[in-house]
Amino acid sequence: MNNYELGDIELLSGETLLSAKLAYKTYGALNSDKNNVILLPTFYTGTHKRNEGFFGANRAINPEKHFIISINLFGNGLSTSPSNADKKQRGSKFPTITLWDNIKCQHELLTKNFNIEKIALVTGWSMAGCQSYQWAAQYPDMVEAILPFCASAKTSEHNFVFLEGVKAALCADPIWNNGDYSSPPIEGLKAFGRVYAGWAFSQSFFREKKYKELGFKNVEELLIDWENDHVNNWDANNLLTKLLTWQQNDISTGPIYNNNFTEALNRIKAKAILMPCSHDLYFPPEDNEFEVKHMQNAELRKFDSIWGHCVANPGNDKNFEVALDNAINDLLK
Amino acid sequence: MNNYELGDIELLSGETLLSAKLAYKTYGALNSDKNNVILLPTFYTGTHKRNEGFFGANRAINPEKHFIISINLFGNGLSTSPSNADKKQRGSKFPTITLWDNIKCQHELLTKNFNIEKIALVTGWSMAGCQSYQWAAQYPDMVEAILPFCASAKTSEHNFVFLEGVKAALCADPIWNNGDYSSPPIEGLKAFGRVYAGWAFSQSFFREKKYKELGFKNVEELLIDWENDHVNNWDANNLLTKLLTWQQNDISTGPIYNNNFTEALNRIKAKAILMPCSHDLYFPPEDNEFEVKHMQNAELRKFDSIWGHCVANPGNDKNFEVALDNAINDLLK
Q: What is the ipTM of this complex?
């Protein structure tokens, strides 16, 4: 993993992020034409490490052919985050960061550090997919294709409400103390994970006991695993920072489109395949149906699966992996 | 409102509920043939008062024709509950109560207090609808028709997980103190309401800003209303008692069917119309599709609406009210 030092960054909110850095990792090599760049942003509880499940020597994205740049989201604990920021901005003092800010900084990394002018593909799951839309809207001349899966160009009001729920569960733990905790709010993190689990799969996933394919004997085992994942791997303020970024996701925010969402969609030049999951409870296909109507060169390719949002988590559904790789090949050919 | 004193009740769990009482209210009069009885159990955050939105002089259930008995669920603060129980069983010391226990006690009220032998219809929304199935399975010779709407004969595993989420949000507040609180766990109750709101309607309800029809300018106003409803109207232990009853809902529990769910469905003699809402996130129609296949005399009549589970809350959707009344008339004719 490498760190790219950005210095002090002026944010869309008007605040400044001090001594900002992006943590990233590359795989493969840039070719002489510089036309084999594939950008993978990270998802909500992801890092570049978890992105490694989306590519490989036998996959559509192949480090033997492509120059893959995997960039960590601000707030994920590797790029600048409440847990590792300049002391003046640590914890509860961390500023509000939008996807606009993330993508502006990722753009600097690509152009200044790598002298890259074109990106063949930006793709990702969930909040990573949201970043692919943001890239295509913010830098329409630079992005040749996007493939957001289980994602949206603008966080829907229902998705916002779902996130308010998990946030409320975490913040009900007074150890959280408005972000000024001295030890982790463990009960709050557990509650966060337990509420989240109900949204991550579909009703039919549970009806058909698909969780057994993940190695859980019953739902309680699954719930405890979700609790532990949040307690062991995530800092509360980091989670809440990224949650706020997610809630504010809207490609038309900022100086170019001034909140004209359909205009922002329309100005995306990238060839796009939007791949929602039929049973995703918080990124339902209906939101992508609206998007595809207003994009220049986009196809809606809904994937039917009772896995819901977690269909795309590497290892969960082999059929999704095949469909994803086929779509990526279609965009890259 | 009247109270029916049950004395000490032996529960399915083996525990005893001390000095139990059912709070109920009747409307209309029992006719001489005693064939005009309509039973309305109460839903999760309901009381007999909120059931009054389901009948009236111009409705299918009409107190001028029917003898309506509206019975409060154990745990709702009117019937025996953690908040009002015998001192030995108050608060965290309240025993586990199933729908089997509720219906056994409701049966005693009807047979011993009113000498009623036949019920023309048991109907209700959500957990009240669950009680209609329980009645028909537990006393198949007494119940002539049921109309559960947005309900199920057995709580699905996904529904169980959703309930674990709202419970975890409440219990993350240490004021709750494992049920031994001296003042209400307000932050926990707020979190409970905030998590719940995401499940109560559908994704499309929010997309189409239907909450404006409820008088809310934006989602935050809706969320605050849900917070306040729980803080102002509900005791935490009462909510958790009913939640556990809901999680354990399964008409095949108990001595008659010994957990043979399809057998229990098959032994229901009542004429039934099952009325799920197409967009209900926790009582999805798929669960009722299974049920109707195994019932002797049941029809599935799905109601299509983006209101989701709350389609049936009186006043929300006039079209649902019409469909409900038509179905009730079909069962009563």
A: 0.94
